[in-house]
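Sequence, structure tokens reproduced for reference:
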Amino acid sequence: MRLTFCTLLSLVTTTTWAQFCFSPEKPQLGQMVSFTYSPQTTPLAKDSTLEGRFVRYSTPNMMQISRPTTVTLVRQGADYVGEIYIPTKDVTGTMLFFRNSKQPQRTDLNNGQFYVIPVCDASGRIVPHATGGQASVFTRSHFLNETNTRFDPNWVVTLYNHELAQNPDLQSLYWSDRLAALIKQKKPGYGPKVKAEIESYLASRPNPTLTELTDAIRLYDSMGDYQKVNALRERQKVAEPAGSLVQKDRAIAIRAQTDWTRQKAAYEAFVHEFPTSSHLSDLAVIMTNGYFKNNDIPGLVTFVEQQPTTQTDVLVLNTIAFQLADERRSLPEAEQLIKHAITVLKVHPKPRNASANWEAEKQNRQRQLMNTYARVLEQQGKYTEAYTAYQEVINPDDAEASDPRTNERYFLCALRANHAADALPMTEAAIQVGKATPGLKTALHDWYAKQPGNTPAKADTYLANLEADIKADQRDEIQEKLINEPAPAFTLTDLLGRTISSSAFKGKVIVLDFWATWCGPCIASFPAMQQAQNRFQSDPNVRFLFVNTREGGPVQRVHNFMEKHPYNFVVPLDSQQKVSNAYKVQGIPTKVVIGPNGRVRYRQIGFSGDPEATVNELALVVEMLKEGK
């Protein structure tokens, strides 16, 4: 007959828990433990669907075994019984709590101390770590996350103290965890006490290990004693001259070096001294960008091709190669770089910053690289090869996820490679879902008009039919954005000294763009605004005014800006912010459109960063207002 042992407290004393009993009385490794749980006096007294959750624990460095597991409970009258197996090694105890299986937030945590089954040795003595391991469950595992509670630092300190009183030889394993618990406990005078114990412990170790120094640093850091932290870090550097701290300092110095020649020399020395450093990947990116910024493109190619694949950032190479292609410089080298990136990606392990679905992200990166490869080939006049590369990027079945500028380059490349008809499905799909640039629409229109039997008028109809649905949807969306407010009259002077008065624009659509030279989004939106203005440049009933406001500096700054940039804007000066205030401008850039009836019909703050979307929406607003919408 098996005896039932009901004398368990988390400190393994002789206090009785009536609600939890287990047998055998002194469980050992490799045994099955049966237990009885009586919930009548617990928070689960009125619950009927119960289950247990438990973790096994061991020494502090073995807490990875603390994976929460469910134990099935079988009801016997008013009680519940279950069984837990104790493995044959690496376990010093088990901790449990009970909960309603259908309402997991309803729990019995035994007042935050959980229910514990300690492991005993052959003589019946509680094994070392049976108590300290409980504290480690609280401080080194995620078991409490399931219960949405925090551990009681007073209880954890008690557990550590009991373990060390029974097994003082375990001091080196528990000292820092115990002191961390004392810090969380925050009893009066804890700071000096903890610091004294840190110094005492380190003094007792003639040659503290790097782990011990790191633990001491962590403790001092949590108390805000940064002088001690820095002193111990210097001590770590002396103890480990090739260690992580020294490497980190050297890496930071390389990053901060502004002299290119010295930066290269420092990097080469670092690679020689620390060939397996974890900082090499980040430093390789720094050097890659360094070669590019210093316009040493041949040197960049040589450097990149010498790097291990694990230290090669293909997205950085992609960015550089694309910029070189866009600027039409070093095109053969740009081709080498992007080809190398494509080769590396095929064997590249999952990067630290990759998403959980690496295979899907890898395919996305492959498309990015192929897009750049196609651009590089195209800029070199290799249109047939570029068209083939673009076909790996383009997906007519997913036009909504496509990039308008890529769509334009694809069709223009197809034209030059005599594959325009083959590229037609994607081009039409892009226009139908609003993913086409004005340049793409123009190119398609002109090509279509030149086909046998076609005319410019037929091309107009063809393009209008392609855009009909998306324009209808966009018009519906814009209709909901339209407002109807009075348009305050204004008179301003522009940069050329001309008087600009709203009264001169009666019956016209007026687009006001409120901006300042210091406003990044304002300046970023100007290329799109230039496109929008160009679209209506021959229309006498549409006027664009770029009202400079909130400048906060001399007018000459505005003159200088406009002289340096090729925008043919009319720039009225709202130096007192009277007009911007009258038009309820809360931030810049703000676009305001006044209808032919002299009423404010549209107001948009900010810039989305999408030039095509900005141009299309603004153009539709103007067209709708001209139609009297």
Summary: The two ends are 92 Å apart (CA to CA). The chain has 22 helices and 17 strands. Residues 1-10, 12-16 have pLDDT under 50 and may be disordered. Residues 54 and 96 are 4 Å apart (CA to CA).
